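Memo to structure team: turn this sequence into structure tokens by end of day. - J.P.
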Amino acid sequence: MNDYDEIVQQIAGCTRCALSEGRSRTVPGDGSQTADIMFIGEAPGYNEDQQGLPFVGAAGNVLTSLLAGIGLQRSDVYITNMVKCRPNNNRDPLSGELEACSTYLDAQIELIDPKVIVTLGRFSFGKFFPGRSISRERGKPRSWGGRMIYPMYHPAATLHNPSLRPALENDFRNLLPLVEEVIALPPDDAVDEDEGKQEQQLSMF
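Reply from structure team:
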């Protein structure tokens, strides 16, 4: 899958898992195909399933507000999810469903080639760092496979627990400086997978 439209078409016709049986529309992603920042959430909800766009419900309103707070619009970034079809009753995606969609997400990451991948919530963070606690690791950028991963709480978490909103706002404030720092890193350092080295280089966060 070397072309964005090809990825979208393959997602639209995908029957790799049972989620395809109950969907209204697939939700491949939305935003700039040359974005420096990619947001990866968990799964589409009801509104996303109806519109075919990610983060257009209540959690999407939070995300749009947080982006506006740092001077960005949705069109400035790329937004997608771990799975591209809505799980029934908005349940958590199953491991087999995550695996079935992983090829599409990997292709999106490769094609868009963002400077920073923002993982929203534990499922997307777990793709890159399995078994790690999002509450302990959020706000701490780290290198993975030559890319910078920046874990944050999922915007939906702030709807259930408003006390998390200040932490999410703070992480967003650090996002653009992080992108600038990644761009400024020498090529050898930018792709260095030595986690300790990266944490020292990005100690300002």
